[in-house]
């Protein structure tokens, strides 16, 4: 499975070695978030796409071959009618599932507004649906997130908070890191008095394999600033999120 992923998103051994070297250099510099967007890492991993005349991403031959290998290993025949075009479909689907690697979610917070009529209370966006994939089994993660911040002197359009969430979710993830990344991105770009992120999600690696237990929701939270330091403020924001 790891070899398949390397072919799908590495573009060959040379690109893979280059990517590993770039990640090692980042680690040596003390980077604590290896899932954060970096133009140099994106280039090293061969993320640039070629668009065909039909407007669709051109799927490299080695990617199609890798998916055919997986189909055969699963016990089916990739040349039969129902599967003949599956390698291209799967490759393009994964490009979309992992489109978050191609951009920095923080760009969505670059446009802010200072004229908010003196509003200085909590801003909450509740129950934002999202989908991601776990980095351990590449199985779906589906859930909702509630995001809140206490502005200092500026706010953003509410859709931007959802875009930040989706930008990080469209990568291979673990829920704990996703929660922390969304919160830290808002903190770094808006410098609010506080940030709170609560995510509840179901994991396909638990429902579709292994223990095969359905209906279990995993809840993670990240509190920064006043929501971390002040119990009454934290209680208020959790109540606004419907978790009081």
UniProtKB/TrEMBL annotation:
Catalytic reactions of this protein: GTP + H2O = 7,8-dihydroneopterin 3'-triphosphate + formate + H(+)
Known pathway: Cofactor biosynthesis; 7,8-dihydroneopterin triphosphate biosynthesis; 7,8-dihydroneopterin triphosphate from GTP: step 1/1
GO biological process: one-carbon metabolic process; tetrahydrobiopterin biosynthetic process; tetrahydrofolate biosynthetic process
Record's keyword terms, sorted: GTP-binding, Hydrolase, Metal-binding, Nucleotide-binding, One-carbon metabolism, Zinc
Residues annotated as domain GTP cyclohydrolase I: 64-241
Keyword flag Nucleotide-binding: yes
An example Gene Ontology molecular-function term: GTP binding
Annotated EC: 3.5.4.16
Chain sites annotated for binding Zn(2+): 134, 137, 205
InterPro entries named in the record: GTP-CH-I_C/QueF, GTP-CH-I_N, GTP_CycHdrlase_I, GTP_CycHdrlase_I_CS, GTP_CycHdrlase_I_dom
Domain of life: Bacteria
GO cellular component: cytoplasm
Enzyme class, broadest EC rank: hydrolase
Family: Belongs to the GTP cyclohydrolase I family.
Oligomeric and partner information: Homopolymer. Toroid-shaped homodecamer, composed of two pentamers of five dimers.
PANTHER family: GTP CYCLOHYDROLASE 1, GTP CYCLOHYDROLASE I
Protein name: GTP cyclohydrolase 1
